[in-house]
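Section 5: illustrative case.
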């Protein structure tokens, strides 16, 4: 099972690829998708969509894990992040419908470190203990790796919840 973790952003986004075999999680690669070369935000959305589409085509993940929206101080920043995230999810859903999962930042930290309000340094230390020293070019890459690991550790529960919701919806349609 190949999992793509995404740390979304409107100027850059981190991605990480892991492989899960049984209970073993292996780090494969990570990187950052940069969008600042396009000044106009509205035009940047197309670049965001296409870069995510390229990542899907290049790495062929089975599932995608994305960080849920976080609290930001500015409504404008939140709006841009939400739109960028929407462009990403739209790109992923073209070929991964039903295989996209989202996780709150606190659940990501809790899954990786055991504490939902862990510091960035604690998350990095936990990732180093799992995978050895990785020289990330940006913190977006390590965040994306934490998101992928969170999904690997929580995916069975998450899939059961999705199936349960789907069954309830189907029963409601039978009336």
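Designed sequence:
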């Amino acid at each position: 099972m190949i999992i793509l973790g995404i740390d979304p952003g409107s100027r850059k986004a981190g991605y990480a690829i892991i492989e899960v075999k049984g209970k073993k999680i292996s780090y494969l690669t990570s990187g950052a998708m940069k969008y600042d070369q396009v000044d106009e935000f509205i035009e940047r959305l197309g670049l965001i969509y296409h870069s995510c589409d390229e990542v899907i085509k290049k790495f062929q993940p089975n599932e995608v894990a994305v960080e849920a929206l976080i609290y930001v101080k500015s409504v404008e920043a939140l709006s841009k992040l939400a739109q960028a995230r929407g462009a990403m999810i739209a790109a992923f859903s073209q070929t991964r419908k039903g295989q996209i999962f989202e996780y709150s930042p606190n659940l990501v930290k809790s899954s990786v470190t055991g504490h939902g309000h862990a510091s960035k340094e604690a998350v990095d230390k936990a990732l180093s203990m799992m995978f050895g020293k990785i020289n990330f070019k940006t913190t977006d890459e390590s965040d994306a790796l934490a998101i992928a690991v969170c999904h690997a550790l929580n995916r069975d529960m998450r899939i059961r919840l999705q199936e349960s919701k789907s069954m309830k919806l189907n029963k409601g349609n039978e009336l």
